[in-house]
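User: GyrI-like small molecule binding domain-containing protein, Mesorhizobium australicum:
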Amino acid sequence: MADKIDFKKSMKALYAPPAGRFVEVDVPPLSYLMVDGAGDPNTAASYKSAVEWLYSVSYPLKFASKRELGRDYAVMPLEGLWWADDMSTFLSRAKDKWSWTMMILQPDWITAEMVDAAAAKASAKLGPRPASLRLERLEEGLCVQTMHIGSYDDEGPVLARLHDEYLPQQGLKETGHHHEIYLGDPRKTAPEKLRTVLRQPVRRLS
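Assistant: Predicted structure for GyrI-like small molecule binding domain-containing protein:
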């Protein structure tokens, strides 16, 4: 059996940007298990359900891959795409106005059929499968990202610098949803020590 793969290490440029400064990175097309929703992640029942479903399907997928394909890997961290009709709500932290797609990266060899089988098992515990639960290829391409160390609620000034200063100065324009990668567990880590990759897909204006 092949060695266990940790994609955070094999794709270090995507998961370990520097803190305190922005860097550009080309993100290849990647497959994610996704669930869509809206509302404050701290209070919306749909958010808690989405995260529970993602992990309840991702771990059986890992075990099936190891058992059936002889390919083992570490389950990846939770990630999220975030957007709103009025993007200023990100700076004001009006979370009830946010829409989101929560997701977990999957290896390229994971198939929709494998997802269906894992979801069927999870539904025995969690109930009906969310309509938006799916395996989808995400193509972000050129992105700007940084490592934010601290509370999620302290991201506002970092995002303001990104959108109001860095992108205009570099001749870049946003093209996709704000993307976050959660490398810390808020249940076990002090807010000031949380590590979150903040990523923004962009295009060059000229």
